[in-house]
């Protein structure tokens, strides 16, 4: 009788076990492998720090080898001592403290295998400053020796070092998710599961062992930093005309910036406020009376690659020397003066509405400075001021004008900035230099107003200018606001109406990182090899500086065969419009590089290239994928326990089977 009860009990246990498995299967049913993977892994949105190379080595971040890095997530502020490899979460206000400890504490550093940087506007508002660039950015290119001068007092120089572990800046949503995970791990110290971060930041140069630009270009595991600059003449230059060429006033701005995190390079104040100001100036002058009759030629140039060794301005000057197609119609000898619009977005900081004119020399720039004062007088706004920069400064601040001054020390030029002796931008070359925290549109409108009228006065060559003529030059404040939304935010971002009037952008969120040169450099590049922002700038300038073409009905771009004709807005409807405009792309990449037979090579230093010796020749490593995900893993001790339990269950199953067999045999004998 006891044997019968035991057998019935075992049958009930097995039936209940099968039912529980069946119910579990119903709850956790998956339609496909991706469904299963999605339930197991949480994809994390973020912005990676990537591996960059130069002639002498590496900077930036990468997994140390060919494999992914997997480690538990922990918080830096609670992780005083690490006993196992960990992925540390850190707030931006502790970023420099963490990297300082990694440099000074070898035992702590040995256990840090990845870093996750938190995002959040509340953190930014409480910061006194954060700049991973040097205190004198690109001092090696300065036309003077004063490397100890601090233009950027908050600079830490962290972005110029190499790190053999991955670093990710988290999005706002991912920051919240990872904070919960880190807290959960802290509470699970005695638990058998832990949440880990899985970093896939394997760089091709690391896998191949090509640790500098020359070797990685040779092995084709990297590409050179660069892109396309744009220049445009107002009014268009009649290349075939027999008239004597006019002296040129060159107006310059930059469209690229740098950051510790590749795809989070915003640069609101430095330098995009200057770019927006330049675009607003072109718009205002294109509508002004008498521009065609000015005595001097206005030429606007927007350079890229300036944050990485002044690639754009240096290549522009080399193309001028070589009289290439990219600068057809422009002569270096005719450039009379250069006006650069630098960082102007903080010109109204703390109710101080003052801009500063940094000049190459007092005597060479008297005409420009005088025109600026006359322009200020015509604005009838006494609160806006432009002062000469302090004489205690060692020279020009970091700017494209340095390239021109290195080329010709007698260059007449002025850089308009929102600072005097040190950057007012406390977030220079960081992901925190964004909108709306770091700039205001009123300052950009004011700077553009001063520049537009100054150029008109200067290009009139000391002629008596009627007040009525200057009063027709007004900055469109609505355009400035629109450009801020298009170029500095994801909403609306490059999906804004203004940008879509000219191009079909590849992404909504703008990034002002220079990128890499794709394909063969050309003055007429394939549009897919040109970034969204340079394509927009080209179309905008070509449109604003143009005069109507006689071939208005021609198919574009093939029908734009007349002298000086170009096709604008071709991306929007596939047709475009033919206009007469002197607007050109200029390749922007190191003057130490040469593209030949589909490969890049490093050229020996040319003594005539005054900045070439200091050129690091920046390249960016190739990669297959960059991913960050989080999932739960079990402790190895738990795995051991499961193994032992499995063995136990197997033994018990054998015993139960033997007992059941004996019971059945006995029952059959009775019958």
From TrEMBL:
Identify the domain of life: Eukaryota
Gene name as annotated: LOC107808649
**What membrane topology is given?**
Single-pass type I membrane protein
GO BP terms: Notch signaling pathway; protein processing
This protein's species is: Nicotiana tabacum
| Cited InterPro entries | Ncstrn_small (IPR041084), Nicastrin (IPR008710)
Q: Which family does it belong to?
A: Belongs to the nicastrin family.
Give start-end ranges for the coiled-coil region(s): none
Protein name, per record? Nicastrin
Q: Which Gene3D superfamilies match?
A: Zn peptidases (3.40.630.10)
- First-listed, main subcellular location of the protein, grouped into a coarse class: membrane
The record's keywords, sorted A to Z, are: Glycoprotein, Membrane, Notch signaling pathway, Signal, Transmembrane, Transmembrane helix
Compartments, record wording: Membrane
Question: A cellular component term (GO) from this record?
Answer: plasma membrane
